[in-house]
Amino acid sequence: MNTKKVAVIVGSLRKESFNRKVAKEMIRLAPEGLELQIVEIKDLTFFSEDIENSPPQTWTDFKNQVQNSDAVLFVSPEYNRTIPGVLKNAMEIGGRPPKENSWKGKPGAVVTVSPGAIGGMGSNQTIRVAAANLHLSMMTQPEAFIGTIKDKLLEDGVTVDEKTEKFLVTFLEAFKNWVEKF
């Protein structure tokens, strides 16, 4: 089997983001056949139709990284029961103009991470709705809502909770199987 490149989009810009730590853990735990790489969104300016036909280089670079991937994995927090603005902005940039949709036809998955008990469920569902409109084929099971994250990670981002690590491995194996269908 050929190794599949997975664009990992982290929906948080916070320096010590729990989501970035989980994304890095997932990179470490990725099964053979999946190569996960974080695609940065911090330098993307706000989306505007006024400039989408002659976009800034940061937009072009981002779209190319997504386009050159075989799959997409969103790892995101939840802000006010929905998707972080920076992630929504990246999704818009990647999907516009519609004839140049970088997401189209790619398999995808979402993991939401939160210090709260329900693990970003609102954001997870909102990402799925937006992804469907962008023509991403999202893995439906297992769903990944990782709550009470402060109890599960060390400061360096290493999973300390054996149950969480096992879940991430199971999730990544399922994602690998999903990606191989495309």
The CATH class name reads: Alpha Beta
Percent of residues in beta strands = 15-25%
Helix content: 25-40%
Low-confidence stretches: none
Largest sheet: 6 strands, parallel
Q: Averaged pLDDT, please? A: 94
CATH superfamily: Flavodoxin domain
Q: Can you give keywords for this protein?
A:
six-stranded parallel β-sheet, alpha/beta, FMN binding, Chromate reductase, 36% helix, 6 strands, globular, Rossmann fold, 182 residues
Fold blueprint:
Layout: E1 4-10, H1 18-29, E2 34-38, H2 57-67, E3 71-76, H3 85-95, E4 107-113, H4 121-133, E5 137-138, E6 144-146, H5 162-180
Parallel strand pairs: 1-2, 1-3, 3-4, 4-5, 4-6
Helix pairs in contact: 2-3
Structural summary, described in words:
The protein has one domain (4-180): Rossmann fold, CATH 3.40.50. 36% of the residues lie in helices and 16% in strands. The chain contains five helices and six strands; from the N terminus they run βαβαβαβαββα. 41% of the residues are buried. The model has no long low-confidence stretch (mean pLDDT 94). It comes from Kaistella treverensis. Pfam families: FMN_red.
What's this model, at a glance?
It is built from five helices and six strands, in the order E-H-E-H-E-H-E-H-E-E-H. With 182 residues, it is α/β, with parallel strands linked by helices. Helix 2 (57-67) packs across helix 3 (85-95).
